[in-house]
Amino acid sequence: MYKIPANTLFMGKNLVYVPECHSTNTLGSELCQRSATAEGATIITDNQTMGRGQRGNSWHSDPYKNLTFSLVLKPSFLKPIDQFNLTVAISLALRDFLTHRIPGEVKIKWPNDILVNDKKLCGILIENTLSGDTIQCSVVGIGLNVNQDSFSMESASSMKVVAGHDFNLSDELSLLFEFLERRYLQLRSGKLTDLRNDYLSSLYGKGEERRFLVGTSEIIGVIEGFNQQGKLLLATGGGTKSYDLKEIRFIG
Ligand code: BTN
């Protein structure tokens, strides 16, 4: 069972536990539609059977080993054009938390994979509901690999694999809520330059030449950063170009 965090104002205070579900993001979007749902409400499961990831991928997590949950946020202070700033704040919260809890180099792989020592420990799926020129509701889905020992993909890892010991899921969740709230409040108070600079300083591969797939063509580019809409900025032979998630894929 998971406990209500003691040290947050609103993040995780309304905590709904379901032993099993298809996807906490799907349940979270139902909560999101209800106007009575308070900001920071969270739905968490120990056994997510049809977890959803970015680009229509699925997210697999061994039952009872990891944290799989979705937060409901209401960032009505953000314009839809600025919605990437929420991705920035949430990614940084995970980066801060992992830097605090385990050894190793924590990086954010654009747009929001969290890597430790080049392996993915955490995936984030943010689904926003827009209403006119505001963001009415955001479901922030977080899959954090905590105590899972083995993975079908070589590129995945967990806190346990990195630190060499088990973690108490409930304690880690409580602490993570504190980090999430801190970065979310920073976003709410408009500290966008600080947030974007912190994200940039943790951006995986920044300033390095990398290989990407654009459509079916392979290109080589140097990661320069990201623009206001959150598109990846790549310096290629033909100058700097911006790419969104649907257009580009890292290959090496
Ligand atoms: C990705 O890296 O592709 C994002 C993965 C996001 C997984 C989390 S687990 C909790 C929440 N519920 C879902 O169905 N997906 C997110």
Key features of this structure:
252 residues; alpha+beta; BirA Bifunctional Protein, domain 2; SH3 type barrels; seven-stranded mixed beta sheet
Account of the protein in words:
The protein has 2 domains: 15-201, Bira Bifunctional Protein, Domain 2 (BirA Bifunctional Protein, domain 2); 209-250, Roll (SH3 type barrels). The protein is 25% helix and 32% strand. The chain contains 5 helices and 14 strands. It has helices spanning 24-33, 84-101, 159-163, 169-188, 192-201, and strands at residues 15-18, 42-45, 51-52, 58-59, 67-73, 106-109, 113-116, 119-131, 134-144, 209-214, 217-226, 232-236, 239-243, 248-250. The strands form 3 sheets. Strands 1-2-5-9-8-7-6 form a 7-stranded mixed beta sheet. The relative contact order is 0.15. The mean pLDDT is 97. Biotin binds at residues 23-25, 48, 51-54, 57, 59, 68-70, 113, 123-125, 141-143.
Give a list of the ligands: biotin
Report the order of strands and helices: EHEEEEHEEEEHHHEEEEE
Stretches where pLDDT falls below 50 for ≥5 residues? none
CATH homology group of the largest domain? Bira Bifunctional Protein, Domain 2
Number of helices: 5
Secondary structure layout:
Layout: E1 15-18, H1 24-33, E2 42-45, E3 51-52, E4 58-59, E5 67-73, H2 84-101, E6 106-109, E7 113-116, E8 119-131, E9 134-144, H3 159-163, H4 169-188, H5 192-201, E10 209-214, E11 217-226, E12 232-236, E13 239-243, E14 248-250
Parallel strand pairs: 1-2
Antiparallel strand pairs: 2-5, 3-4, 5-9, 6-7, 7-8, 8-9, 10-11, 10-14, 11-12, 12-13
